[in-house]
Amino acid sequence: MATVGNVVSDHGQSGADRDDASHRQASARRLGVVEYGRGTVPLVLLHGWPQTSYAWRHVTPLLASDCHTLAYDLPGIGSSEPAIDRFDKWSISGDLHASLGQRGVQRPLLVGHGMGAQVAYAYLRRYPTQVRGVMLLDTPIAGVGGCEDRFTSSAFWHIGFHQTMSGDTGLAELLIAGREHRYFRSHIDRFAAHPDAISDADVAIYAHGYKGQRLAAGFALYRTIPLDIASNERHTGTVDAPIQLAFAEYCHATVLPEVAVGLGEAGSRYVATSIIADSGHWVAEEQPAKVAAAINRFIAST
To answer: Burial level of 154, CB count in 10 A (0-12/13-18/19+)?
Structure first.
């Protein structure tokens, strides 16, 4: 049985360059979360763009029975409270840490996809001794290695588009507002091996999670990538918590070795790699059984 709730975070850092807890200010940022199970293994699922916690709907029923799974919505998106700033992943990791602390969750295993993977890595770097392990699904980490071409390749033109401003407003918001479903559908299809795994009804649910101010929150995740790169380049050093890379055969698998080397050079002592066969980028929906099996194996190994 799943339960839905909002978690209030008192984390109020203004950016990735402010690491000390003494800089926190009350912000009452609420993160939406759907919980499954009451096991002893805390498992945090973090979605990417343009998705919400709904992305995990086919995975959660297949997870090990000893899991207590928490599928979060990122700040300003889905069931989370609208947010207007602090979309760098270091800041979001602080919100997540506070949220988990309020629920008494200790040493979670984090699974992230897309922007959620960026948050999971920031969480590992910020709280290295408080993490059981991190699984990154089909996502190179900004500033670590294996993602440089993603910022210049024509296949990833959406990154620059999402970052572009028109005065005080994002260009993407001006052009996409009211057309969320069409744009999301197009984006999903471009990176899917099995686009029919995500129906038009599913896309409509995602589009609803980005309506109004929430649309800007999604694009803001891209506009803070330069901050994420700087933060990840600065926060290096030995980390003992294991990292499992599980990349899609038909998307980022080509850079998997480079990403693994980059993480090792940044200080991660234990990095394992695997490929999710016959999948495009949307692994949790294109191959949910394989993703769940990979998560269960990772839990067992940690």
So the answer is: exposed
Whole-number average pLDDT of the chain: 91
Q: Of 97, 98, 105, 35, give the one whose Cα is nearest residue 72.
A: 35
What CATH number does residue 22 fall under?
Answer: 3.40.50.1820
Residue 115 token pair: 């922007």
Read off the pLDDT of residues 87-129 as tens digits, 9 standing for 90 and up: 999 999 999 999 999 999 999 999 999 999 999 999 999 999 9
Please give the Cα distance from 251 to 278 (Å, whole number): 10
Model pTM above 0.90? yes
What span, in angstroms and rounded, lies between the C-alpha atoms of 251 and 276?
10
Element (DSSP H or E) covering residue 247: strand 243-248
Burial of 227-254, coded b for 16+ CB within 10 Å and e otherwise, reads bbbbbbeebeeebebbbbbbbbbbbbbe
* Residues pairing with 30 in the sheet: 8
Range of the structural domain that residue 238 is part of = 2-301
Q: Is the peptide bond before 50 cis (omega within 30 degrees of 0)?
A: yes
Roughly how many angstroms between the first and final C-alpha of the chain, as a whole number? 26
Evaluate whether 192 touches 282 at the Cβ level (below 8 Å).
yes
Number of domains in the chain: 1
Q: What is the four-CA torsion angle of 172, 178, 180, 181, rounded to 10 degrees?
A: -150
DSSP H stretches of helix in the chain: 89-102, 115-126, 157-163, 171-176, 180-190, 200-208, 213-223, 225-234, 256-265, 283-286, 288-301
